[in-house]
Amino acid sequence: MIKVYGSGYCPDTQAALKKLDEIKAEYEFIDATGSVEGLKAFVELRENTPEIYDAVRARGGVGIPCFVTSCGQKSLDLAEVL
After folding, report:
1. How far is CA 76 from the centre of its chain?
2. CA–CA distance, 43 with 22 (Å, rounded to integer)
3. Residues 2, 30: contact at Cβ < 8 Å?
């Protein structure tokens, strides 16, 4: 199972979800822009994952989509978690 943190408005998130659907992967989508709960979950991930998000913040990025596997692997690259 992969958790996908992203936004329904983000083209990169939409492309990742399409790819996951195509390969029939099991995933949970956490929409950071769709609810307060989703936003809180994304902010917690972003604030507690400096190994990914320090560089994202330094360049002024948001850092979505982000993928988290059931074993805890985190990445901004879908290929790394498949």
Report:
1. 7
2. 28
3. no
CB 76 within 8 A of CB 65: yes
Global confidence as pTM? 0.94
* 3-state helix/strand/coil string of 6-74: ECCCCHHHHHHHHHHHHCCCCEEEEECCCCHHHHHHHHHHHHCCHHHHHHHHHCCCCCCCEEEECCCCE
Q: Residue 78 — left, alpha, or beta (φ > 0 → left; ψ -120 to 50 → alpha)?
A: alpha
Residues 9-64 pLDDT 10s: 999 999 999 999 999 999 999 999 999 999 999 999 999 999 999 999 999 999 99
State both tokens at 58.
Answer: 């330094």
pLDDT tens for each residue of 23-32: 999 999 999 9
